[in-house]
């Protein structure tokens, strides 16, 4: 089957097996709050002004447009560490040259506020953040569903979660990755940022499909016996026995590309016994492929899996830079609260940069939030 056909329906697999949980969720400014955590402390020295802003129901680009129009500063002269959702109440940092500070003294806007100023030596760039803290309120939650939700949330907190790209990555209709393949085939796009975004969406789509395959393998290793597994995968009994003994739900494989979590250089999984213990302690995690010429290469059975999963992209490998992304990640500072009188559940947690809160919600609720929005 051609994975790039428009009628191809991809449904990701979940690590948890409970039935769907029915709640009401809306990404409004009362029920969805995101707070960006900077990668480093600002020095309060240097030529760049760092503005801590909060915005309501505005995308980062819309916020920059407002700041640009009121200050007369070109959008390209602003810096930011990450793009934030349009929906909800979001906090993030924006940079501009310090010489422009006076232009913001009388700034006022009903949906955008400047909370505080810092100075620093460099302009903010994409990736200059540690991650984001989330506050999410779910409504119309029955006591039985609240109990079910709490158990699922606690499981994800202890075992980690499949680090899928969120639906936001794929556009309004979830198919902008199809434009990415057309670009690789020669379609001309004048806007370089749009071109890179569409190619990135294509890489992300295939990453999600491969990660779903790895979730399937993890389920099979957990649920099937050694004899059944030898019929499914070209692995020896000894390796399968090691995999069966892994404490984590997600199974790392010999030949996987691993990385020190949450930051660190890539290396190959050679000693499965040794690395599975480090994985269990959250010292390392497995990295999935974003196809490109600079991506770290896997080996053995993993190489075979990737060659099959990414075969429709590999012919364009030299046209993309490529990298690796953690397939398995973790929540931090996770909190769960249920108000039975109001039938509200509040979830709070921190995610490393690049991870999506909506991915957590989809795993918890077992529903496609894109279709529900």
Automatic annotation (TrEMBL):
One Pfam short name: TruD
Active site: 85
Origin species: Campylobacter novaezeelandiae
GO function terms (MF aspect): RNA binding; tRNA pseudouridine(13) synthase activity
InterPro entries hit by this protein: PsdUridine_synth_cat_dom_sf, PsdUridine_synth_TruD, PsdUridine_synth_TruD_insert, TruD_catalytic, TruD_pseudoU_synthase
Domain TRUD: 160-329
Function description: Responsible for synthesis of pseudouridine from uracil-13 in transfer RNAs.
Catalytic activity: uridine(13) in tRNA = pseudouridine(13) in tRNA
Protein name as annotated: tRNA pseudouridine synthase D
Record Gene3D superfamilies: TruD, catalytic domain (3.30.2350.20)
Domain of life: Bacteria
Gene Ontology terms: cellular component: cytosol
Family matches, as HAMAP family: TruD
Cross-referenced PROSITE patterns: TRUD (PS50984)
Enzyme Commission identifier(s): 5.4.99.27
UniProt similarity note: Belongs to the pseudouridine synthase TruD family.
Keywords: Isomerase, tRNA processing
GO biological process, one term: tRNA pseudouridine synthesis
């Amino acid at each position: 089957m051609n994975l790039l056909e428009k009628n191809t329906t991809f449904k990701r697999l979940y690590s948890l097996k409970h039935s769907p949980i029915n709640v009401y969720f809306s990404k409004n400014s009362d029920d969805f709050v995101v707070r960006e955590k900077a990668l480093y402390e600002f020095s309060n020295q240097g030529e760049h002004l760092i503005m801590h802003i909060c915005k309501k129901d505005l995308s980062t680009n819309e916020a920059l447009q407002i700041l640009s129009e009121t200050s007369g500063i070109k959008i390209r002269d602003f810096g930011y560490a990450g793009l934030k959702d349009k929906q909800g109440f979001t906090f993030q940092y924006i940079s501009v040259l310090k010489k422009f500070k006076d232009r913001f003294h009388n700034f006022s806007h009903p949906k955008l506020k400047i909370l505080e100023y810092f100075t620093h030596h460099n302009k903010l760039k994409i990736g200059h953040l540690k991650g984001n803290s989330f506050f999410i309120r779910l409504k119309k939650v029955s006591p039985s569903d609240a109990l079910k939700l709490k158990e699922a949330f606690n499981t994800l907190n202890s075992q980690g979660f499949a680090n899928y790209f969120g639906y936001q990555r794929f556009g309004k209709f979830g198919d902008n990755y199809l434009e990415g393949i057309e670009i690789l085939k020669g379609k001309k796009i004048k806007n370089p940022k749009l071109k890179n975004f569409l190619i990135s969406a294509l890489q992300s789509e295939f990453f999600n499909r491969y990660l779903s395959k790895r979730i399937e393998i993890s389920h099979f290793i957990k649920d099937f016996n050694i004899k059944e597994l030898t019929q499914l995968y070209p692995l020896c009994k000894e390796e399968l026995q090691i995999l069966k003994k892994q404490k984590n739900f997600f199974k790392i494989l010999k030949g996987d590309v691993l990385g020190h979590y949450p930051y660190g250089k890539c290396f190959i999984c050679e000693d499965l016994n040794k690395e599975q213990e480090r994985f269990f302690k959250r010292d390392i995690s497995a990295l999935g492929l974003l196809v490109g010429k600079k991506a770290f290469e896997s080996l053995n059975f993993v190489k075979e899996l990737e060659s099959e999963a990414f075969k429709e992209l590999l012919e364009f490998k030299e046209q993309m830079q490529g990298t690796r992304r953690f397939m398995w990640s973790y929540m931090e500072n996770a909190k769960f609260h249920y108000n039975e009188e109001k039938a509200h559940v509040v979830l709070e947690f921190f995610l490393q940069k690049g991870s999506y809160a909506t991915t957590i919600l989809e795993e918890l609720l077992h529903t496609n939030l894109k279709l529900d929005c």
